[in-house]
Amino acid sequence: MKIDFDKEGYSYLTDNTMLLDEETLFLLTSQNRPYCEKLESKPASITPDELMAFWGLDAMKVVGVTGTNGKTTVTAAIYSFLLDLDKKPALQGTRGLFAEEKRIEEKSMTTPSILETLYNMKQTMDMGCNYFIMEVSSHAIDQKRIEGITFALKVHTNVTSDHLDYHGTVEEYRRVKSLFFADDTMKLLNKDDINNITYNPKNAYSYGVDEPATYKVQAFSLLHGITAGIKYMQEEATFHSPMMGLFNLFNLMAAIGSVHLLTKRPIQEICDVVENFAGVAGRMEVVSRDPLVIVDFAHTHDGIHAVLESMKDRDISVVFGAGGNRDKEKRPLMGAAAGRYANKIYVTSDNPRDEVPEMILEDILVGLHGKENVTATPDRRLAIKMALEALEPNEVLLILGKGDEDYQEIKGVKHHFDDREVVRELLAERQG
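The line above is the sequence of UDP-N-acetylmuramoylalanyl-D-glutamate--2, 6-diaminopimelate ligase; the predicted structure tokens follow.
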């Protein structure tokens, strides 16, 4: 693939081996355009790997993390651990671009256009960063938005089912994800999820909780956070984290293994800094401890299953919905996942977009047929209010789907709405 620059300084992509439809070609061109204008000198045509070499970006260790769930938390944890080990990492992903412990650019796509990524690598390298940690989406793999980037490490969190509105089938989604692990690049794979992808075994390492792995959890406790003992070869280490949930144990293991492969530091040295990482806003974020209210981004049936299963030792109340103009097949599955673990269920709107909210609710309720203690309302604030009012001392309230999003998208308009703000306001009103 080449980046061609037209006479106005804009860019488009050419690839003799791949025919892009007009819509995708326009999308990629428009994504690259603002960063073309920032280039000091524009060759007539250049490939992404040539541009990497031109800017000296090969000096950076690039880490790509992909998976249905966990990308944001794992990349943030790697970034945090490297900082605490006196390295100089940069972080690019859903939450924006970070370097020197501050946000350089605001939230963006999970994986931006190739020119934006390379530009972000250059500006963070100029700031002294020598690691570049990035989230890699299935869209980016399919659209070749990461082509030409030389990765030092590729990380797999899990691959279940998502974005079927784009990929069409689960099999195609998994095939695309697997493409990321087809080369000889060093890779770190979730051994407990390994059957959901195919990969090149050369330079492959693994982490696991139940399955034998390069980095293996020997024992763990999820009481008052996460405490675990792990083993790598003959090395043994322990760590504690304030984060909650079994899936976060997997996320932390992915980050610990990644940092070890990158730095070769003793495992215990890495484990010693784990406690400093409190997690990511909107990902299992504790909004209130009395009563216990947690907000999370889980927006697929697998995500809901993982979050609720991680809290199954408690009585669970849950508020969730499903986004409009997205994969409709997952909606009843989301309902069924909630019904499996939660005692009280409040089905409500997420981002209905162009769909009728009540119709989305009906799709979800199909998976809750015959389940008791189910309440449905398109008014998300009302759903949260009812859930809080009915919450008992031994219960946890999980509000899922939006995480740290601060809006609801309805008919093309984004209205301010933050689950965390709503919880705090309602609790303050009740106390007042």
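Note on the example: The chain has two domains: 47-206, 285-431. Residues 7-12, 16-20 have pLDDT under 50 and may be disordered.
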